[in-house]
Predict the structure.
Amino acid sequence: MSKVHDALTDQLGQILADTYALAVKTHAAHWNVSGPQFFFLHEAFGAQYAALFEAADELAERLRALGDKAPAGIKALAKATGLEDTGSSEALKLVKDLYADHVTLAKTLSGAVGLAQDDHDEATADLLIGRIADHEKTAWMLKATLG
């Protein structure tokens, strides 16, 4: 394998860990949100964490298709992620934190698209571009919630 391919699979492992961490963080927000927007945010966070768990599965399967292993176990995923826990149940704090995480992931994914294209891996580039669109849409919705 090439250095570009290795860099790509390393980046995919990081993205998978961050995606999984964001899914868990969003799931916790779904459980713990409080405040006047509870019903709306409880439903929104539910849809978001379900989509993130599905995305994590797609990323892990892509890693396997590329001949690498997906990070396994909660400790390995927690060690690999750069995302921080919120520790809050206040609605607007949760929205702000999740917004920032979606923006961060979209930026990380953008860099990985370049690696995939350098590796002539259009399937991975396509997957990553789709993930960027999903994160940007969710970020927009969360930002709109903040007003």
About this structure: The domain at 3-146 is CATH 1.20.1260.10 (Ferritin).
